[in-house]
Amino acid sequence: MTKTSWFLKKLKANWLTLLLIGLIVYFWFRPPASVDDLQLPAPAVTIATPDGPQPLSSWRGKVVLVNFWATWCPYCRHEMPAMQAFYQQHKGEGFEILALSLDDGQAEIDAFMREEGYSFPAMPTISGTTQQFGGVDKVPTSFIIDRQGVIRHRISGQVHRARLEELVLPLLREQPQRQPRQAATEGAVPAPGSR
Q1: How far apart are CA 1 and CA 127, in angstroms?
Q2: Which listed site, 12, 24, 100, 140, has its alpha carbon 20 to 30 Å from 65?
Q3: Are 125 and 49 contacting, i.e. CB atoms less than 8 angstroms apart?
Q4: Residue of 186 and 6 predicted with greater confidence
Q5: What secondary structure does DSSP assign to 54-103, as a single string?
Q6: What is the spatial distance between Cα 169 and Cα 93, in angstroms, rounded to a whole number?
Q7: Are the CB atoms for 176 and 146 separated by under 8 Å?
Q8: Which has more confidence, 23 or 66?
Q9: Which domain, by its residues, includes 134?
């Protein structure tokens, strides 16, 4: 009897073994993540887009997932297919992703995105951006910003399709608040009783 066959004879599946294997597989493919509900104004940060620096406020009127990630991070790599599928399905409804890499330059990021077939915008993080978001101490960390420029959720850990649907879809249904029009004062007739 070889050592391998002896080991296989001794290895018997029982409910505890199956439960432990199931938990390992679950947490490997969907590690726990915490979601904090926030009501904070989005910071006045600059995003280093391929077209040049743009303020985050340029995306006002859209629901934005700001995702801090790194190419070396396995959980970041694992969440990206779900992000891509969600982006493809909802970008026409006003959904945008800004994937901000903590470790690479634009050339490396572009090569990674091209190789993996992702079409959402990805760019390097400008120094100080993570601090302006309240500190990002691990990756992946994501922030969901509503159409009015308010951070509604912080996700510490991996995002997946169900979580995106739960947190983003209600925000996509909200209509952008319109800014009140400024009444033209030149040549305007004052309203009765306003003098």
Answers
A1: 62
A2: 24
A3: no
A4: 6
A5: EEGGGGTTSEEEEEEE-TT-HHHHHHHHHHHHHHHHHGGGTEEEEEEESS
A6: 10
A7: no
A8: 66
A9: 31-173
Residue 122 host element (H or E):
strand 122-124
Q: How far apart are CA 42 and CA 149, in angstroms?
A: 6
Mean pLDDT of 54-72: 96
Q: Give the number of domains in the chain.
A: 1
| Amino acid (1-letter code) at residue 65 | L
Q: What integer best gives the mean pLDDT of the chain?
A: 84
- The amino acid sitting at 41 is P
Whether omega before 170 lies within 30 degrees of 0, making that bond cis, reads no
Give the global pTM: 0.76
Q: Does some domain include residue 24?
A: no
Q: What type of residue is 190?
A: P
Residue 54 falls within a domain, yes or no?
A: yes
Peptide bond into 140 cis (omega under 30): yes
CATH no. for residue 161?
Answer: 3.40.30.10
Identify the pLDDT of residue 104: 73
Instruction: Tell me the three state secondary structure of residue 141.
Output: strand
